[in-house]
Amino acid sequence: MTDSERVQPHRNAGFELVGEHASRFDADDLGELPFRRRSVEIVCSSGSRHVSAWGGVPIADLLASGEVPLKTTHLVIESSDGFTACVGVDAAAEGLLAWSRDGSPLGEDHPYANRFVSPAVDGAKTIKGVERLQAIALSPNEEPEDYESLSTESPEMNE
Ligand SMILES: Nc1nc2c(c(=O)[nH]1)N[C@H]1C(S)=C(S)[C@@H](COP(=O)(O)O)O[C@H]1N2
Ligand SMILES: [Mo]
User: Fold this and answer.
1) How far apart are CA 119 and CA 92, in angstroms?
2) How remote is the CA of residue 128 from the centroid of ligand 1, in Å?
3) Is any atom of ligand 1 closer than 6 Å to the C-beta of 128?
4) Does ligand 1 lie within 6 Å of residue 28's CB atom?
5) 126-137 pLDDT, tens per residue?
6) φ, ψ for residue 146 (rounded to 5)?
7) CB-side exposure of 15: number of CA atoms within 13 Å?
8) In whole angstroms, what is the distance from residue 150 CA to residue 115 CA?
9) pLDDT by residue (tens digit) across 117-128?
10) Helices (H), 2-157
11) Given phi > 0 = left and psi -120 to 50 = alpha, else beta, which region is 67?
12) Distance 126 CA to ligand 1 centre (A)
């Protein structure tokens, strides 16, 4: 991929990654991370669906750079509106922490400047406006759903 294809993130695209330590990635830091594009279809349980070319840093690269514990089983991905998903780490690692869509930076036409997307997760878990990703290790008797808050859709993220 040539450098001209890299889309610069909106200034609000930053987020926090919590692994062994908490690391803050601001928009300037995102410019230093690997940039990849991936086509992902967002499918809602209501039946609506759309495909876009999302661009950003592969979650797999973020996990490698963020000193995430080896025993990590899930990522808790939390939005500024409280919307929170708990995704298996392998499914998350197929995705991106995206800051562009179809070649344009997020944050100009939408109230969110980044988004978690993965071909391996439900549309409902493609969290808009990610504030924080936290690596956790669940034991087999724990339910990922207990870490989630997907019930109320936030009007400000979905207008
Ligand atoms: N922060 C946040 N992310 C969110 C939501 C939300 O309400 N808040 N809705 C989810 C749901 S249920 C779906 S189906 C998709 C909708 O994405 P779209 O607006 O691009 O179709 O976003 C998901 N991500
Ligand atoms: Mo949805």
Assistant:
1) 9
2) 6
3) yes
4) no
5) 999 999 999 999
6) -65, -15
7) 31
8) 15
9) 999 999 999 999
10) 27-30, 59-65, 89-93
11) left
12) 6
CA-154 nearest atom, ligand 1: 7
50, 16 contact by CB (below 8 A): no
Residue nearest to atom 2 of ligand 1 (CA): 128
> Would the CA dihedral through 10, 132, 98, 113 be positive or negative?
negative
Instruction: Tell me the two tokens of residue 11.
Output: 């200034």
Amino acid making up residue 144: P
Residue 34, ligand 1, Cβ within 6 A: no
pTM above 0.85, yes or no: yes
The whole-angstrom separation of Cα 7 and Cα 40 is 17
Residues in Cβ contact with 106 at an 8 Å cutoff, skipping those fewer than 6 apart: 10, 13, 98, 99, 100, 112, 113, 114, 115
Angle, vertex CA 116, rays to CA 113 and CA 25, nearest 5: 60
